[in-house]
UniProtKB/TrEMBL annotation:
PANTHER family: ALKANESULFONATE MONOOXYGENASE, CONSERVED PROTEIN. It comes from the Bacteria. The lineage of its organism: Bacteria, Bacillati, Actinomycetota, Actinomycetes, Sporichthyales. InterPro entries: F420_OxRdatse_Rv1855c_pred (IPR019952), Luciferase-like_dom (IPR011251), Luciferase-like_sf (IPR036661), SsuD_RutA_monooxygenase (IPR050172). Keywords: Flavoprotein, FMN, Monooxygenase, Oxidoreductase. Gene3D superfamilies: Luciferase-like domain. This is LLM class F420-dependent oxidoreductase. Residues 20-254 form the Luciferase-like domain. Pfam families: Bac_luciferase. Signal peptide: none annotated.
Amino acid sequence: MQLGIHNASFSWPGGPAAIAPTIADLGSAAEAAGVAYVSFMDHFFQIPPVGPAEEPMLEGYTALGFLAAHTSTVKLQLLCTGVTYRHPGLLAKTVTTLDVLSGGRAVLGIGAAWFDREHEGLGVPFPPVAERFERLEETLQICLQMWSDNNGPYEGKHYHLAETLNSPPPVSSPRPEIMVAGSGEKKTLRLVAKYADANNLFGGPDEVKAKLEVLKQHCENEGRDFSSITTTTLARVDPETDTDAFLREAEALHAVGVDVIFVVPRGDNPARLADKLGKDVIPRLAELG
């Protein structure tokens, strides 16, 4: 079992000038601890219940590019990219750029988007949920085509690309990993089975187990090897405040098939969480396999 750190807040002491060094410290501490992933949110306003909209929030891919320059081993992703925020061709180019500059460490985490306030506030179109899922599937198809040898056109219901040229190609082989985030049984998990290398599920062990049974059926329908999909989730227990309870939760999640747990830093020093994980958590998780 592996751990990721999912940073959901930039409200740290020192104001805007302190954000960059705090991110750099987080990256260094995460790698020293043996953390496998570092992720940021893809939001432009802070979201409830993390904090009020006025709290600091960085553009995600710019922040990951900065983090790439201060790390060398952790995988880098947004958890997760909102499909509405970027044209699919430009998104593929953005993730490719991150992958090239990080030496093959980019992951495309993506979902259907949900936060209407920031869409309305910044003038970003926010189609109905059914259309957002249609756009999500087309975006996955476009990214996969741009990460292939096919430079030809793409014709979809919502997107029309005259040529899917993408040079330089990703460093990752054969391409960056794709995570489709969310637990919706009819649409999201079908997209995981059809297109993704990883999921991101919500809930405790029982809920995750039930969702994985649904995903297995989608994999059978798509002719997909279920075991090839990495299962991830967000921790519900803070290991800084109750390490033993976190480890019990991790063991229960591991037993139902979770491969990666993302932990969210609390407080004003995310590097402290990484230090805690390296000292007290990761060595014990290694015993789980």
